[in-house]
Design a protein that fits this description.
single chain
Length: 213
């Protein structure tokens, strides 16, 4: 998949991609081995990391191309908070580097109503539409929700912050990939995955731009 571009978003040098190959080498890529769910590095004899164990995740696997640190963090913030639409091809290609399975239905995590009103756009839905344009099956299953921003809450509060999740449809695909912007503890993905599994889904995976290290 090639995206034509004139200059690298990061260094400004001529480039056929939004982020040139030299700058891509500075990105902190997620590990291929580690926790059986999120691939974070493991300590001790457990096959799951502390975050996945603590949240009792029902998501089978969480996929993200980069850790939320360094240049990847800057590019994420530019895209999400500064309307960095020109970075869309970079993020689409990055997501396809860790997931491209047409057997799954891609479902976007809905925005908080307060965040949608504040930003005026939904960065997750924007990427979801672009991914679906590449013959990925997509379906919106959730209404926007009323709740506090997850980043403002501690770990225990996050588990109870998404009680107002509502389904748009009860026609639930059996194999689903939930798309979110970033994963910290996995509480958000877990809350939506539980509802999907309770309503007929057989398997739920998670896909995000970045993963907290």
């Amino acid at each position: 998949m090639i995206f034509l571009n004139k200059f690298c978003y990061c260094c400004g040098r001529p480039s056929s991609e939004v982020v040139c190959s030299d700058c891509q080498k500075l990105l902190s890529k997620t590990q291929e081995r580690g926790c059986r769910i999120c691939a974070r590095p493991l300590w001790g004899l457990n096959d799951t990391c502390w975050a996945c164990r603590d949240n009792e995740l029902v998501v089978k696997k969480i996929m993200a191309p980069y850790y939320y640190e360094g240049l990847a963090k800057i590019l994420f913030q530019e895209y999400k908070f500064n309307r960095g639409w020109s970075l869309t091809p970079f993020w689409v290609k990055s997501l396809f580097s860790v997931w491209e399975d047409l057997d799954y239905t891609l479902v976007p995590i809905p925005p908080k109503k307060s965040s949608l009103e504040k930003r005026g756009w939904d960065p997750v839905e924007h990427l979801w539409k672009r991914l679906c344009a590449f013959k990925i099956t997509g379906k919106k299953l959730f209404y926007p929700i009323n709740s506090a921003e997850q980043k403002l809450l501690n770990r225990s509060q996050r588990k109870y912050n998404l009680s107002g999740i509502k389904l748009i449809s009860t026609a639930i695909p059996q194999k689903i990939v939930l798309l979110d912007d970033t994963v910290t503890t996995g509480s958000t993905l877990n809350a939506f995955a539980k509802i999907l599994l309770e309503h007929g889904a057989h398997e739920v995976l998670g896909l995000a731009l970045t993963l907290a290290p």
